[in-house]
Amino acid sequence: MTRQSDNNRQPTLTVVDSRGALLAVLGYVVRVAYENGTEYGQYGDPFHNGMVMGYYDILTNIRIAAERYGVSLDQIGMESMDPEKELFEPMRQAADRS
Fold first, then answer.
1. What is the pLDDT of residues 24-34, one digit of tens each?
2. Cα separation of 67 and 9, whole Å?
3. Is 32 helix (H, G, I), strand (E, B) or coil?
4. pTM, rounded to two decimals
């Protein structure tokens, strides 16, 4: 079996040329992660707390990547978002209730 050189490999990912479409998709991911994270934090059980941590990780990494690549946070709906406060506060409140 002959191995192809890196120069001959076909890309496995097609890049979308439309920046607007990419920002819309990213904004959608941000919104869903935020909504699910804030909702799941209200349950207060270990499973849902783990889900909140996953959503926090997603939102934090999106913020870091956006800043690194020069994407304005308002273009993806994160301009006034504080994931640490807004996702973890419902978890703290749920823990206080139990």
1. 899 999 999 99
2. 31
3. helix
4. 0.76
